[in-house]
Structure formats: structure tokens, C-alpha cells
Amino acid sequence: MQPENTITVEIPIKMRTTNRQKLILVPDALLPVTKPQIEDRLLHVIAKGFAWRRRIEEGKSRHMGEVAEQEKVSLPYVHALINLTYISPGVIEAIITGTQLKGLDRQILEEMAKEAVWERQVAVSKDLRF
């Protein structure tokens, strides 16, 4: 039994263990609002992917291997960045405005791009962000 002047507060949380660390995950609605932070690296790789894709579509390069050769980068890198062009417009807009999920990086973007359905891309990003 609690004393009369006690208040009980319930906060929905999830516990997750990663690399032997315990993390407390709270719903996004409970996180403090922060200033938008534009991630230049994410913008850069997405812009490169669109530029390289456009180069192929316009016939300036015949295939991804040719782009890799011209840019002096590996074929898997070109392939990964071109795949980023298939990310949901909503996610790309969030990256441009700096309102993307905290912790979003190129690796998570690459995982998101594997999902053809845009709504599932967002679910993948939420699963991978911690």
C-alpha cells in the first residue's frame, strides 16, 4: 500500500541488449524535440547515387562498372549508392531537412533500400537504429 501523497507514473519502455549493453528504448513521442540536424554525409552519398543513376539513364555511362571505372571506386560502392535512389521520398526529404531518425547512417539506408515497399523501409530503420 502506497502513502496518500504518492503519485505513480507509468512510462512504456522496451529493454534491448546489444554488445553486452542494456539499452532502454522509449517511444519516439516521449523523446525531447531537438533541432533538425542535416547529415552532410548522408546527403552526399544520396546525391552521388542519383548523379550516377542519371549518368546511366542518359547514356553517358553504359553500366555501373563503367561508372566505377570513371570514378575510380569499387563496383559494390557504386551499386550500393545507386540503390539508395530507391529509398522512400519521405525518408529522403527527412534527410534533406535534417529531421531523419537519430542514428541513421549509410548502413541503415542500404538496409532500407533492400525493401521495395516504402512503408516497410521506415519499419526497417526503426528496427536498426539502436
Can you describe what's shown?
This protein has helices at 40-57, 64-71, 75-83, 89-97, 106-113, 118-128; strands spanning 14-18, 21-25. The longest helix has 18 residues, at 40-57. The chain has a single domain (31-128), classed as Arc Repressor Mutant, subunit A, CATH 1.10.10. Strand 1 and strand 2 form a beta hairpin. It has a two-stranded antiparallel sheet. The protein starts with 13 loop residues before the first strand and ends with a helix. The chain is mostly helical and 130 residues long. It contains six helices and two strands; from the N terminus they run E-E-H-H-H-H-H-H.
Topology at a glance:
Blueprint: E1 14-18, E2 21-25, H1 40-57, H2 64-71, H3 75-83, H4 89-97, H5 106-113, H6 118-128
Antiparallel strand pairs: 1-2
